[in-house]
Amino acid sequence: MLIGYIRVSKEDQNPDMQIDAFKKFACEKLFFEKISGAKTERAEFDKMISILRPGDTVLVWEISRLGRSAPEMIKIVDEWFKMGVGLKSITEPFVDSSSEWGDFLAKFFLLMADSERKRLIRRTREGLSSARARGRIGGKKKGLTAAAMATAKNAVIFYNSKILTTNEMCSALKISKATLYKYLRYEGVEIAGWVKTPNLNRD
Q1: Where is the Resolvase/invertase-type recombinase catalytic domain (predicted)?
Q2: E strand map for the chain
Q3: Nearby residues of 48 by Cβ (< 8 Å), 6 or more positions away
């Protein structure tokens, strides 16, 4: 049975986009709650846990929705895999327990994402402080869909880990090399060995 779990924080955007995405996967059961990840009590999550059986698969928007910290989420994923419960992520296609590397990639990504999240929060705060000092206000980047932006964030995490090759990153994210580089540049990542081609037709 495919079971969907949606958790958004009270500060999150309208959850309709996520709900619409889950409907496309035709989940037999869907659990939704609007609550901060820091909360220890998650009624809907606990309800979902209580009905899980071997052969079930849990579908999430992103695996960070499963818990408050990387160690906690890795423990959850580990327990599910031992039970025979699968895990899939809509915005992280490499997180798929049915694939050969699904278990490893899920745990690896959780560890890297936790570190990268803290680094991004720090850089964002520093950037906003600098922008305010110059009289500018930070804003949301434009040009990518929400799902593409999530993939772009994941691409940065994989790239900065320096563990996977370019082909392995593309395979895990299910994107082409051109798209990978596009996403990395979108996120402001300096790509080793990549040189922007000058526009020779410019007047």
Answers
A1: 1-135
A2: 2-8, 29-34, 57-60, 86-89
A3: 3, 5, 29, 31, 58
2-102 belongs to which homologous superfamily? Resolvase, N-terminal catalytic domain (3.40.50.1390)
Cα distances (angstroms) measured from residue 151 to each of 69, 77, 172, 187, 197 = 20, 21, 11, 11, 25
Q: pLDDT above 70 covers what percent of the chain?
A: 67
> Where are the chain's structural domains?
2-102, 140-191
- Distance, CA of 2 to CA of 44 (rounded, Å): 16
> Into which CATH architecture does domain 140-191 fall?
Orthogonal Bundle (1.10)
pLDDT band at 19 (very low <50, low <70, confident <90, very high): confident
Segment 183-201 mean pLDDT: 65
* Spatial separation of the C-alpha atoms in residues 77 and 52, rounded to whole Å: 13
Which residue is catalytic, options 9, 36, 115, 176?
Answer: 9
Of 8, 27, 7, 3, the residue nearest 87 (C-alpha): 3
| Beta-sheet strand order (sheet of 57-60) | 29-34, 2-8, 57-60, 86-89
To the query of whether residue 69 is one of the catalytic residues in this protein, the response is no
Structure tokens at 148: 């593409």
Of residues 162, 180, 156, the one with CA closest to residue 170: 180
